[in-house]
Structure formats: structure tokens, C-alpha cells
Design a protein that fits this description.
Elements (H helix, E strand, L loop, with lengths): L3 H20 L7 E6 L6 H20 L8 E6 L4 H13 L5 E4 L3 H14 L2 E4 L14 E3 L4 H15 L4 E6 L3 H17 L3 E7 L5 H12 L3 E5 L2 H13 L5 E3 L7 H7 L7 E4 L9 H14 L5 H19 L5 H11 L3 E3 L2 E3 L12 E6 L2 E4 H29 L2
Parallel strand pairs: 1-2, 1-3, 3-4, 4-5, 6-7, 6-8, 8-9
Antiparallel strand pairs: 10-13, 11-12, 13-14
Helix pairs in contact: 1-12, 2-11, 3-4, 5-6, 8-9, 11-12
């Protein structure tokens, strides 16, 4: 396994040379599949990803940047990994798809990967994050950071920054949580010495009673909610109902406009990590994307819309480079043709395994707004300074009147 990355790149080069010699005169259309969950329990992610993809396509079309013959084939996975596999086969075998944007969730990506090898098709995932996915196939690439980075970041933030030495875990049951939890425990418990007072599975009967008992008996300084948006909203509602006044930290899956909107005031003060997409950035690419997105949808883009946008821009560029648009040339373009691609989610450069390194930052929900923790601290320091200055001014005024 250690030699895999080197042989992978060598295979891509040799296969690309062979294909170029054998098929140089062939006309092969750049047909791209969009395989996302637009219905079912992961539909909020699929909808956000799709919205970003549409913005990228519209932008390229207006700028006449689409390759000749470019075509999109859209299919809904229904948030079902088995359906995702069936739709992948259909779009490749019946619609002539050459490359797929798919694997929105880690569960879907894991199901798709064996089929990618059988069908000899490349998949670029905009959002799957389970740690081991990228090493499972040379045909699988992703632009969302590994859960290893998110879990470790949460562990150090809870222990070092929030100074919470005891934590209650509320955990969902899916590949996403199984990727984050071990890395969190490695950082928080094994390396830093934090204590996990209880681990409660949110899909087990009686989880509410177990959580209540742990809150009363162990009095954890923090609760870490690991799961998708449905798990997160369920857990936060319960904690608020229990009047829990400690720190609540969760995953980047919270950051869909719908989840935060549904929670409303209940989300106030909740912390979570995000890949480095800052929609308030002064970067020209980010500003252009945010403006166009808001003009199109009358709302601000979330992290998944940004990743959908970047994924589609990369695919368009790959289809411009890959001549002909067949698997070896597509893989060669991803590894060697995309060099420090400037995405709105950060610079994108694929490593030997087909993934990027984007280190997450911590965010907080304050007054209904999502703020980076660094920005939040600056605001808090400024607010405290104003209060001190006002207090000193009042004292001076009182002293001047002789009262």
C-alpha cells in the first residue's frame, strides 16, 4: 500500500500516452454526471451543492468557457447509497458520462467507490470527508478536507481554547461520525488528557434518559455533538430543553442555512469547525461568487454551495484539458493539469491520493450570524473596552459634580 501513490501516477502517465496514441482522432463528448441527494435525509446538502454547481455552469457559459459539446446529466440519489450506485451505472452505461460529481455524503461515496473501478470512471466528491475514502481508489478525488482534520481541530479547541476538561459525547450512526470520533478522541483524550464522561448514541432507544442522567451526574463542561444536521438539531433541541448551560460544540454539518434557520435562537453560542471558506473575504473570486450566488438565490452561500461551485469549476477545467475526455486523460489532468487551482474554498492541489489539505477553523453562532471565532473574540474585546470606557467616563462625570 505504501507504494500505491507512485504507481498510481505512473499508471496515469502511461495510460494517458497510450490513449492519446490510440484515440487521438476520436470525437468523445465531455459529458459530466451530477449525482447528488436532492431528496431524502441528506437533501439539504445536495441542494446546496447543486446550487453552487449551477452558479459555476452559468458563469462559464456566459464567459464562453464551456468545452465544446459539454453536457450535464443530473440524477438524484435519494440519500440512498444503493440508489446512488444504480444511478451511477445508469448515467455511465446509458448516457455516456465521462466524469461524475458525486459522493455527497461519506456513506454514498463508500458505496460508489467499488463501482468506479468496475466502470473505469472518475468521481470528484465535493463533500465526502471520511478519512479512508481517498485511499480506496485511484478513480476517487475529493475537495472537502478529511474528518481527521475536523475531529482533531475540535478536540484541541474544546480542551485548549474553551478549557473544558470534561465532555459528553452525543454521536450519530454513519460513516461521517465514524470518521470524526476517533480523531477527536485521539486529540482530546489521548494527547491532551480530556475526560469523556459518557458516550450516548443518538439512534439508540433511551438516549434522552441517558443524556439527562449524564448531565445531572457528571456535569460535563462541554457537549460534543457528532453527526449530520438531523442529529445535530435533535441534540441541540434536547440540550436546550434540559437547560444545559455548558459549551455545545458540533460538526461542520450544521452549516446549512436550513439547519441553523430551523434551530433559530436555540443555535446561539454553538461552536463548530469549517473548512476555510469565508464569504466576507476581500478575495476577488470569493466576492464574485458570493455576489452572483446572492443575486441568483437571494441568500448567502453556505460551505456546501461553495464546494459545489469549486467542484464544477474544476470539472470544467479538466474537460478543457483532457483530450480526449476519457478516464486516463481526466486523471492526468487532475493530478498534473490542475496546479494550485484558486478555489473560493482555498487553493486546490490534489495529493497522490486525490485529496486536498484544507485545515478547518472554528466558528460560533452569535445573534443568528455565523462568525469565525477569531472575529467573534475581536468583537467581544471591542465591546468590553467600550463598556470599560463608558464606566470610566461615568465615574469621571460623577467625580466632577462632587457627588
Amino acid at each position: 500500500m505504501a507504494a500505491f501513490p507512485m504507481t498510481k501516477k505512473l499508471t496515469i502517465i502511461l495510460a494517458g500516452l497510450g490513449l492519446s496514441l490510440g484515440l487521438g482522432a476520436c470525437s468523445s463528448k465531455p459529458v459530466v454526471g451530477i449525482l447528488l441527494p436532492t431528496t431524502g435525509n441528506a437533501s439539504t446538502y445536495g441542494e446546496s451543492l447543486a446550487s453552487g454547481i449551477r452558479v459555476a455552469v452559468a458563469e462559464a457559459r456566459e464567459g464562453k468557457g464551456l468545452p465544446q459539446g459539454f453536457e450535464l446529466v443530473w440524477m438524484d440519489t435519494g440519500s440512498d447509497p444503493a440508489r446512488a450506485v444504480a444511478k451511477l451505472k445508469e448515467m455511465v452505461e446509458k448516457r455516456g458520462v465521462k466524469m461524475v460529481i458525486g459522493g455527497a455524503t461519506s456513506d454514498e461515496a463508500r458505496a460508489l467507490i467499488p463501482e468506479l473501478d468496475k466502470l473505469n470512471i472518475v468521481c470528484l466528491s465535493p463533500s465526502a470527508s471520511a478519512p479512508d475514502l481517498a485511499k480506496m481508489s485511484p478513480h476517487f478525488f475529493r475537495i472537502y478536507p478529511s474528518d481527521r482534520l475536523e475531529g482533531g481541530r475540535a478536540g484541541s479547541f474544546i480542551f485548549d481554547t474553551l478549557k473544558a476538561k470534561t465532555t459528553l459525547l452525543l454521536v450519530g450512526n454513519n460513516d461521517y461520525t465514524r470518521g470524526i470520533e476517533p480523531e477527536f478522541l485521539r486529540k482530546y483524550s489521548e494527547q491532551l488528557g480530556g475526560k469523556i464522561v459518557q458516550r450516548v448514541a443518538l439512534d439508540e432507544a433511551g438516549w434522552e434518559a441517558r443524556t439527562t442522567a449524564a448531565l445531572k451526574k457528571d456535569k460535563p463542561e462541554a457537549v460534543y455533538l457528532i453527526g449530520y444536521a438531523s442529529d445535530i438539531t435533535k441534540g441541540i433541541r434536547f440540550l436546550r430543553n434540559e437547560k444545559y448551560d455548558g459549551r455545545i460544540i458540533t460538526t461542520s454539518a450544521l452549516y446549512t442555512g436550513k439547519a441553523i434557520q430551523d434551530l433559530g435562537p436555540l443555535a446561539e453560542g454553538v461552536f463548530f469547525p469549517l473548512p476555510p471558506f469565508d464569504r466576507t473575504s476581500k478575495d476577488e473570486n470569493v466576492q464574485r461568487f458570493v455576489k452572483r450566488y446572492m443575486d441568483t438565490y437571494q441568500r448567502a452561500p453556505d460551505i456546501f454551495a461553495a464546494h459545489g461551485y469549486d467542484a464544477m469549476r474544476i470539472v470544467i477545467e479538466v474537460m478543457r484539458i483532457a483530450k480526449p475526455p476519457e478516464t486516463p486523460e481526466i486523471e492526468k489532468a487532475l493530478h498534473f493539469g490542475i496546479s494550485e487551482f484558486k478555489g473560493v474554498t482555498g487553493p486546490i492541489l490534489f495529493d497522490d491520493y486525490g485529496e486536498v489539505k484544507h485545515y478547518p477553523k472554528m466558528f460560533i453562532i452569535k445573534d443568528g450570524q455565523v462568525l469565525s471565532y477569531e472575529v467573534f473574540l475581536k468583537h467581544e474585546r471591542a465591546r468590553i473596552l467600550r463598556q470599560v470606557q463608558e464606566l470610566l467616563g461615568m465615574k469621571q462625570k460623577t467625580a466632577g459634580t462632587g457627588r
